[in-house]
Amino acid sequence: MKILLILSTVSAMLLIASCSFFDPRNPQYPNPDDDIPWYQPYAPSTVVLNLSNSFKGRSISMFMACCDSSYMFLADDVDIAEFGASWDFSNWDYEVEQNTVLNIFAAVEGSGFPDSTKASFIMNTVAEHPDPAAPSDSAEIYRDYEIVAAGSEYCGWDNPARGRVIFLMIEDNYGLWSIKKWFDYRPEDYTEYTWGVAKATYR
Length: 203
Prior knowledge:
The chain is an alpha+beta fold. It has one domain: Nuclear Transport Factor 2, Chain: A (Roll). The chain is built from six helices and five strands. The chain has helices at about 1-20, 45-55, 60-65, 75-85, 95-110, 195-200; strands spanning about 65-75, 120-125, 140-150, 160-170, 175-185. It has a five-stranded mixed beta sheet with strand order 1-5-4-3-2. The termini are far apart. The relative contact order is 0.17.
């Protein structure tokens, strides 16, 4: 009788373990909000869409859910040379990004602008650098951006931050993508401040 009881217990434990090991992961929203669209990031382009939606909706949890824990922001060398004496661009990791974007959201909330015009985050594809058709494990994604944080001196509605980004994205074991690195660039013909400069003023 004791042997049967032990065998039944072991069988139940193995069944539970097999379920937890082999059932597919069902990722949850980082912070459910009916007003901010969120799509499971099974493609790099979806990460860009989520990043845009979360910034416009000023959701820090959704914004940072687009970034891998190893995330790094790398400013343009030209910006570092020109503005490095005034602002800190170094060691810009996940924690720095989170704190900086939080500061931007707080400033935007106090700007006095209507909700619908507090933030804008436009990411346009780059014709000469199309998204890879079927990326695996990692991918470089190019975007030309125009970003507004209402009331900001360096990325307000009268002078949006403009530049080019190369996202280095990575795919996890469940097929979900996130941003590992943001390489920020200021094209030679751009006279506006980049997102790197605009963000650095809030660091």
